[in-house]
Amino acid sequence: MNNILKDVLKLKRRVLVVDDEEINRRMLEKILSSEFEVITAEDGNRALEIIRREAGRLSLVLLDLIMPGRDGYEVLEEMRDDSVLRKLPVIVLTSEASAEVKSLKMGAADFIPKPYDLPDVIIARIEKTIQLYESINIVNATQLDMLTGLYNKEYFLEYALVMDQFYPSRKMDAVAVNINRFHILNELYGRAFGDELLQKIGAVIKSFALEHDGIGCRYDADGFFLYVPHEDDLIGRLAVEFGRDGTLEKRDILNRIRYGIYPDVDRKFDLHRRFDCALLACNSIKGDFQKRSAVYDSSMHEREAYTERLIADMETALKEGQFKVYYQPKFYIRDEEPYLSSAEALVRWFHPEFGMIRPSDFIPIFEGNGMIRQLDHYVWKEAARQTGEWKRKYGFATPVSVNVSRIDLQKPGFIDEVTDMLHEEGITPEEYLLEVTESAYTEDSEGIIAVVNSLRSRGFRIEMDDFGTGYSSLNMLSSLPIDVLKLDMGFVKRIHENEKDLKMVELIMDIADYLDLTVVAEGVENEEQYKLLKAVGVHVIQGYYFSRPVPGDEMEGFLRRRIEYDNSRKA
Ligand code: C2E
Ligand code: CA
Ligand code: CA
After folding, report:
1. Which residues of 226-241 are buried (b: 16+ CB within 10 A; e: fewer)?
2. Looking at the whole model, is its pTM more than 0.90?
3. Does residue 18 register a pLDDT over 90?
4. Fewest Cβ atoms closer than 10 Å to its Cβ: which of 112, 385, 431, 453?
């Protein structure tokens, strides 16, 4: 019967008392009968029989733990494994403190200590529990997520609200858990793998929630929420739980899990807002390879507003020419003296209000919403124009490389777009390099490889950017269509301090030699790094040691020096 109807009809809730001692059954019956309709059972078997038969009509079970035959724990276990019986609240009757925790973990809603000397307290506890469970059960079982068996988001938020009402002063943490670029795992290893992964993660979330007296849900394809009583370093503990599942270590899954937490939530905010905050923290480290977790702070809302603003301003900025292309020279270092061999085009945004904005602030945003295509088209065109102008002015072309995002490569007509551009500016594909990040290859390998192959057949050369940050293995390199390997800055950073990094670079050099690839090292900032890289045979160097990225007119200084260098060699 519907609970509202019960209230209207002032029906008494039906409570089952399970205890092997008659005196106890009698006593509870006496205490409770003014408020409830009481039925009794004298052992575990009889109790389960009644519970099964009366499932829809029972409101609560009072369960003695220690009984001959089937004891209270076994009854709890049996109920927990049954999707219908699980929803019936159980309060355990016990005289041992140690039994309380165990039974709560097994799914009991509460406990009442023996002996029963405070009837009012007992009645209040039972009423509270019934009320809690009835509010929760308003939402029916279809609210469970089929794949993980966790609650869905709506149900979860409703449940959280009820929890708040019952524990008005308890400190709570809101947590968001997300898998970084989950869709790629789906693409790489198939849907079945993805589903299995979500189930595993769901299972960890579920048991963690249970053990920490909280609740969890799956809020979208690859995202989970937790609402649990506040603890110091909750995320640390949660990460440990994920680490325990050995299978998650494979395929680097553990490193892809991102945590956002809004600790000790402010109850002035509604629940949606609290989880928005946790999510905001979680999203702030999306795509970040170093950070695994983030704690919400109010500046994140400012950050979000800034992001919105950049998106809103982008098209005007393109029209008004606020984007400028800078060039960072690259030097060939395998001869006695280093000389300019090419340059990388790097975009800068001169915003009328914010001043110069670095690409790391807007490129990821535009990659996320597709606007990168427009921006890159502009940058490539400008870089091509500049290269053509220099070629005519100085009588030789210094190849310029441009950055190409994964979604650029997936755009239909991309190859014609670039080819036409070069044609218009009077330069050849050999004079124009394309930098594609390593992660693009690992994330959509087949699609990217196909496009890159046809680019190369038209004479383009491809640099694999940020090599070492993606997931391609060294032996995969031989099958990838690339001409140049661009070591990620991370290798260069500590090469003069860390033996292991140097060894790694040496190993990459060996393989590159074998595959006949040119190796570029970027982020070279000091002489020590430069000398070591030269010693191991790196071909080309880019970094502050030689020059920061500079505007086109400053770049011309490097072009003129190259001419002087060539002339001195001829002489
Ligand atoms: P990237 O392609 O790896 O570019 C190298 C970045 O390292 C540049 O940052 C450059 O200024 C910086 N850098 C160069 N030498 C040094 C050094 O010695 N030390 C340090 N610490 N940094 C150095 P920037 O210009 O801020 O660009 C950041 C990233 O934004 C680029 O990383 C690239 O992925 C992306 N990007 C830049 N311009 C474009 C563009 O026009 N289109 C696309 N799709 N992405 C772009
Ligand atoms: Ca680059
Ligand atoms: Ca790079």
Report:
1. bbbeebeebbeebbee
2. no
3. yes
4. 453
